[in-house]
Amino acid sequence: MNMSIAQQLKSSTKAILGLVLLTISSTASFAQATMPAATDVASQELGITFWFYVLLLIAAVFAFAVVNKTLKVLELTQELNGKKIKNTYNNVNGIFFIVFLLLFLAYVYDQFNTLGRMGLPESASEHGAITDNLFNITAIITGIVFIITHILLFYFSFKYKGKETRKAFFYSHNDKLELYWTIIPAIVLAVMVLSGWKAWTNITAPAPKEALTLDVTGKQFAWIVRYPGNDNTLGSKAFKLVNDVNETGVDFNDKNAKDDLLVNEIYLPVNRPVKFNFNARDVIHSAYMPHFRAQMNCVPGMPTTFWFKPTITTEQMRLKTNDPKFDYLLLCAKVCGSAHYNMQVKIVVVNDTEYATWLATKKPFYTEEMAKQIQEAAASVAKAKEEKLALNTHE
Amino acid sequence: MSDHTTHHEEHHKETFISKYVFSMDHKMIAKQYLITGIIMAVIGMVLSILFRIQLGWPDESFPFLEKLLGKWAQGGRIDPAFYMSMVTIHGTIMVFFVLTAGLSGTFSNLLIPLQIGARDMASPFINMLSYWFFFLSSVIMTWSLLIESGPASGGWTIYPPLSAIPKAMPGSGLGMTLWLISMAIFVASALMGGINYISTVLNMRTKGMSMTKMPLTIWAFLLTAILGVLSFPVLFAGVILLIFDRGFGTSFYLSDIFIGGEALPNHGGSPVLFQHLFWFLGHPEVYIIIMPALGISSEIIATNARKPIFGYRAMIISLIGIAFLSFIVWGHHMFITGMNPFLGSVFMFTTLIIAVPSAVKTFNYLATLWRGNIQFTPAMLFAIGLVSLFITGGLTGIFLGNASLDINLHDTYFVVAHFHIVMGSAAMFGMFAGVYHWYPRLFGKMMDDRLGYFHFWLTFIAVYCVFFPMHFMGLDGVPRRYYSFTSFDFMKEWLAVNRFISIAAILGSLAQFIFLYNFFRSIFKGKKAPQNPWNSNTLEWTAPVEHMHGNWPGEIPWVYRWPYDYSKPGHDEDFIPQNVPLSQTMSSNLPGDYGTHHGSKESH
To answer: Of B25, B147, B236, B333, which residue is least crowded by CB atoms under 10 Å?
Structure first.
């Protein structure tokens, strides 16, 4: 066996090697192209990690070629000695499964330890504490099943790897066993359904009467938030009244609408239920407030609603998360177009006095000046429509 | 029946076109499905790599992207609209074109006639049409990538109004029209295939092949076909109504919309109606994808563990259970659409019930491996990998099926992780397992085992590296279908993880070239396949290696036993094919083998 390396690597290996090298060289050239721009630290780090992975890939390909070659040699020698290669492959793959099992469990543990800690902070809403608890219980139960079944799967694969000398155990069925592993999961799942159902019915129950009611409308690509003002009643709205100024189509002839406020940030008083009336004016959006474990789709033509009770103020949460820049957010979770990835509104939870102070600084949206602007905007919408109709008839 | 064959041979002059293009032979159609499926899978994979580059390096510019994508990646950075298109087409291609048509089309076509002992499909002509409709729809879908306004981009679920109003986003114009046309043709193809599979299984089984002597693959294909035939027409209806809304001014899904500076006249429709229609197909669809994979893995695990599949009857009952329940769980995709909360409770209940038959199947797989004599062919490795992925992804389904937990998980990366593992990767593993196992039957050649091992281990590790971290992103409230995570402070910490995922995805996709190389090389240079390379019991291994019309040269073999007589005590070899009469195996027969009705079948 004193052939040169080039001869050693047969055509099959060469082809794969060539393919991988091609990919590496092409990605490497992209990396070079991006290198001059790498002035800040982050990009330099990227450069390092990139080359690290390239080296890793080369090492992997090399290892691949070596292992492949060794296997081929092994196969030939075993064939010469009249042995069967099958057993060797069974052994190798069986051992791989047990190694994989250990690495896999370590990997899963590591991910829980690192990425698992990057999750959301504790729930800032009353119902969220309950669903978080439910989540944890489900995670423990499924976690146990996950670990046991994976240990069995890979251990069996290792333990019962094929040998020429052995014969499998002819065991076709056991109805009792089937019954057990039908009924036990059924009972466990029934318990989960019942607890989930209880939580779900509480969450989706009608909002308490004292709730603060807000109107949130999604559009491409922003949220429009309306507060009810002093009378605590939102004025009605209609999509035909929408124009550039009156963006959600509020009917200002409704006296309840006259004192409504439009805001850029949502302020919520802590420990008071808040009911969101959701709507969308163009396509479906989804109002997602992960820190409150709250989400509801906003559908054009179909009002939806969701209520919850915030329990932790922004200040408190900043202390808890040890992050002075922490903010609650409302974001869009239903694909709504090209800028779907950037539709956010800040939510600030404050105590009652702070809320009252904030509210006092806000002026109603509807003023005489605004009334004029709305009329003008409505006129231009109507004109555009007329022109379009005229164009249609002309055609 | 043998008369029928001679009749075939006399009158059938084969030209290149009738043999390779407009073939009516189920084996050739299976190959056509497989190769089209592989091409579509490569397209889907390339798209996923492109958007993984965007997610892993959102602030970098890659000049090669501009060369590749032109105006969609000006300055080497992918355009947000085109990002959405790639996600949409990736999903559509993978779900429908690869894992529905590619998986089910290939193996139902190949195995149904061969495993039940039939000369061909019930209607070979409709079978051919089914492939060519699929081909046409593939071409239209791929073509839509090339048009000027870009392909459909509202997500593979194409919820209106986004998909109904061309102004809503660039991809909702011609791209969406092509998507809808392509899907309508695809549905026609799926229906023609499905009707054929059902009628073949029900009517054309060879003598002795009772329903409870069929391999589990056939059960899985039969139930898959029934699901398809009952649910695809509903998608078709949904698509047609959407075409009406887009083109003819109807308002099935549209109401109260102000877009592009004007209020639309549509009134009274409901976007949620479309979601109901879509998911009435969409949920059975995920079982249409996974059930053939489960059938394939049942067959492969039993063959290679050299043991009967544990609980054959329980496996059939659980398949039927899954098939039935899959029709009444669609609402779990819609918990937070504003649907009546009571309906949510009902769907939560049915959804968690469907976990029971899935659990039964998993335990049966484990029991089959127990005390087996496992032969690690590449197919067996992929089948074991499938079981692992099915467990992992199935368990996260319990979170998502729980409406109160779904509030916070809906449309986050947790969902992406869940379905890519349980239905994407698991079904893909089933497809790989099937290709490795039946390659000798498809092409008369053997694939290279060693390359198969490499392919499996690299792919298996890559799948867990790519999708497992996504669970945790979801738990941090990171929504799916985001072009970048740099606009939100709290998502920026996931950049490093995204980069890790992207690199794992790129390496994992490179590993697929090992498969492609192995696949195409073996067609020409593979070792010639022996008659029964895996010492399997099922009928397809009794047919000659060289393909011929009518499958068997003489009479179709008769069937005397179930397909899982592996390692039967008292028999010298560790397998007894289905066509071996009981009279030849007196030393190993069990009392139940002689039963005429199938209560006694189970006393094996």
So the answer is: B147
